[in-house]
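Problem 3 from the worked examples.
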Amino acid sequence: MSKGNIGVSSENIFPIIKKFLYSDHEIFLRELVSNAVDASQKLKTLSSVGEFKGEIGDLKVKIAIDPKEKTLTISDRGVGMTAEEIEKYINQIAFSGAEEFLDKYKTDAHAIIGHFGLGFYSSFMVAKKVEIHTLSHKEGAQAVKWSCDGSPEYTIDEIKKEDRGTDIVLYIDDENKQFLEKAEITRLLNKYCRFLPIEVTFGKKTEWKDGKEVELEEDNVVNDTNPLWTRKPADLKDEDYKKFYRDLYPMSEDPIFNIHLNVDYPFNLTGVLYFPKIKNNVEVQKNKIQLYSNQVFITDSVENIVPEFLTLLHGVLDSPDIPLNVSRSYLQSDGNVKKISNHITKKVADRLAEIFKEDRKGFEEKWDSLKLFIEYGKLTEEKFYDKAQKFALLKNTDGKYFTLDEYKEIIKENQTDKDKQLVYLYTTNATEQHSFIQGAKDKGYDVLEMDGQLDTHFINHLEQKLEKTRFVRVDADVVEKLIPKEDTIESKLTAGDKDDLTQVFSAKVPNSDKMNFIVAFEAMGASANPAMITQQEFMRRMKEMSAMQGGGMNFYGEMPDSYQLVVNENHPLVERILAEKKEKVGEQTDSLRSKIESLNKKRSEIEKAKEGKKEEEIPQAQKDELSDLDKKISELNDKKTKILSAFSMDNKLVSQLIDLALLSNNMLKGEALTKFVKRSIDLI
């Protein structure tokens, strides 16, 4: 027996390993099984180059638990180790034996980088004592047992061992008893080891017989050594990809389609990415791409290697060239990672362009599910934006699809305003905004459906990218002003008429803490609606963006929704209300207006006389007169407002026109809707 101290710079290495070196205790099993697989792969490499002459035989890695002895054992029939190699690879923590091995066999494609050393020491996160029973593949080698109780001291004894390879025996401590349970080990093997390239077994297969579980003779192999992403796309069918997806995500619907990655220069990268179906925009989930290194599971948090928009995808990526820290749990940032990220973006964009070109109809059918991914990509990745111009689509309210260039050609003649700006009309809800859509169509305009989660941001992005272009929601204004042209319709109302009718309609609009209405008048054709509700484009967009991202934009989110009640001053029903106003209160309002105008004229004269004078040069009498005039004008205005408000309250037609406008915007509900129905019956 020999004794010694592990070659570390600090005697506190084991507390550091237990607490800080590894991100999660459970990865110890991944490390130890991966080492066993590496040892088995190395034996295959040595055999293939003639340095190992014996029979390779069964290379299965075996996992066994003994609850009575409180041990967990990982066994392989790989290269094994001599006492000298234990000294080199285990006792000297800073040395990586695998790097030396790779350097020696770098021309051999099957040479695998092993992770002896620190990976092995993850076992002390869960074990109070660890033993290595090992016999080297080398002729005449002596089997040895290495033992350590979690202190820097270890012992090495010569032992008898019939078979080459290594058994790692962990004496599980009391704090980690769950790692002696079959269910927990099964879970970890399924998470970390399900695609390792060497068969891994855990116990025997079982079946139900006579109402109970019966153990069979056959080993229970827990992994698929030849997973789909390692095979050639030419050898795979669509059903193979769907089956693999169902294995990865058992509760999910079949994906829309997949992209098979197979890169060997300037770095190694394989994998399969799937575009999942999204039933609604709320169901977006990240952390669905699994990252592997040589078929060893690393993480499903791939933000540092996959462009952000592609983290919405599902699937598998495998690359030995992704740099990992000592625990293999976190990606390190370097140039290689950025190159891989850029390459994945390019591959995805090229594949989407290829699918679009080969089967545009099929692509259009899948667009509603693809739209979120592609818009997200165009918003966050400049290179993807440029490539996506070939296949990114716009959908109109008739369910037709266009590329941006195609759509521009269709609308440029009819939807260019007087300032030579191209106006894209859109709806965020085709049902609720139907009357506005119909009004736009009646003018010969086309309307896009922009009802997605990212569309408000995407519209802003397109306006920045495209010259002389703006997007206007179809209910942002009356149809005549959505795309202003040179020709205008003449108004039939005087300034006084508009002023009085503004008071009449303002008295009835449903202002509240959450909604604010401004009454405006527009000269529209007699066939247009008598009144309609619009929402100013800028403020609505700001509120929508505020609702999505919070933070500094909460200022907009806390403001009440602001609407315009736009009254068609040329509509016969509005003319009828005006006629009724003149008949019932016209003399009173005309008299008051005449007095107000006279007082305003006098006020203007005094203000003109004040021009060029300093405050102290203005006589007090003038100041008093101005104050008296302001008071009289305010009193007369209040009186006129009260008269017009009283007229409004008694006029069912005013209420009816406002409610019809609210109803067409899906804004008439509850008691207000009940009153509208009753009033409609009375009017009929």
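Problem 4, a separate protein:
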Amino acid sequence: MSTGKINVTADNIFPIIKKFLYSDHEIFLRELISNAVDATTKLKQLSRMGEAQGELGDLTIQIEIDEENKQLRIIDKGVGMTAEEVDQYINQLAFSGAEDFLKKYEGKLDGADIIGHFGLGFYSAFMVSSKVEIITRSYKAEANEAVHWTCEGNPEFTLDTVEKAERGTEIILNIAEDSEEFLKESRIGELLDKYAKFMQVPVQFGTREETVKEGEGDDAVETKVTVPHIVNNTEPAWTKSPADLKDEDYAQFYRELYPMSFEQPLFHIHLNVDYPFDLTGVLFFPSIKPNMEIQKNKIQLYQSQVFVTDHVEGIVPDFLTLLHGVIDSKDIPLNVSRSYLQNDHNVRKISSHITKKVADKLEELFKADREDFAQKWNDIKVIIEYGMLSEEKFFDRAKKFALMVNTKEEKFTIDEYIEKVGENQVNKNGETVILYTANPEAQHGFIAKAQAKGYDVVVLDSPLTSHYIQKLESSYEKLKFARVDADTIDKLIEKEENNVSVLSEKQLEDLKSAMEENVNKAKFNVRLENMDSSELPLTITVPEFMRRMKEMQATGGGGMFMGDLPETYELIVNTNHPLASRILDTEGDERGTLIRNATDLAMLQQNLLHGEALTNFIQRSVDNL
């Protein structure tokens, strides 16, 4: 057996870093500014411990473009580096100065957020540069003593002694020809807004004009002054205690996150956890209408105030990706390039905790001001229903505040509503039947029939309704949902009593044959029912099971084959209505016209009569005036 060390050849590693380490070349700016933030944070900590002497001064990080010389500069006034440290942290790949600092001062740091981990971020500069230079002076150096490091993206480098008046580091990127977009002010401004918006140290990019008002009243004079353009807010809302923030602070933060949004969120949830893992953030509930105009990728993931991604699937439960806001955690495991999550038990724990915090907040809001919660129900119900379908623990919590809204706009929890309808809506099998409508206007006639029987009807109009009621039926014993137009009302809530037909067996057979001869049998299944004579002569319904399966398949789920089935309807004939006898008493064309007119009326009630069929029906009706 033999042992040895694996050698990494720099000739081979540079092309890999330049092409494959980061999924997007624009990431270089985030990495270099993060390094500058770390250098500044280290200096603050050393000063606090008495290891760095003198005044810290202005610690603002500068971003400068020199378009003429095709250079982009990132300048900080942090700890800087000596020649030995350049050799240790720059000339050796994957040797992290941040990790080294944390180990050296373990237990002595005052909550310092050091960003770097892998020691590779600096090399992202070579993705956009033909040459990279470092001019750096350590806080430990003698006056003007500095070093100048130069490399052209290969294993060769130069390291010289130079003079530099101030402590800190200047990174000079000589931008390559294929990356000259990064010499444009608008492009760099866009990247700073994306990646540096909330970094912990002020970042300046050029200047801006500001109006200053001097004096009072009529003597007031407004003048314009040039001030540094600071691109970031170093203390965003999620870094503060909820006790220190008011509603207007959260509203301002939302505008800061989404400056192009014109709608205000309904409410917010502030996450502030330090055990068993680090997690902070603010989540906002947007207004989501029943048509489900949803925008995902609105939650931004940060690590120590450094933007990572807005694709948070995995750490945020799927149903909460409909929310907006920010999550920040030092404990979220990321890949080497900090561009996506690595799946591990911490991610799952954080996801479960976020679900719990959201459920806690919703229950708190419901208990604190039920009326206000109920007013917002239509805007948040899709998110809550989605959560109840996808997270069992959330379902158990949400049953306490998920609402049922009836056609009179009265609102009940699920348990309250089951108690409300009580024995009145229990069928002969002992099942409580909840009648619902997807469209109160379109299904008005069916609702009226249900109400005439003393039944109550709820409105369930979200795209998840079929999935949602299926979940409720499986979770509650002897609970059944039926849409009001799925059958006649006596069949939807079937009691023991049955109506008797006024027609004989022979007449019933003749009636069914006459109907089937004059309607489209591929579209309608003719069914005779012995109903009260005051009920409509013909009613068209969509069988609950068939419609529900089709809706579930359309929104994901249900049998895939259901989407291929033709549209079929139940054509229910009231055998006790006078029209039934009239149909039997007529023959030939007169019978056909009578049946077609009655069928068209039933189709009209269900909004199924269109085009030529509607035109022909109107013409026949006019001819019979």
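Solution to problem 4. The two ends are 105 Å apart (CA to CA). The longest strand covers residues 203-214.
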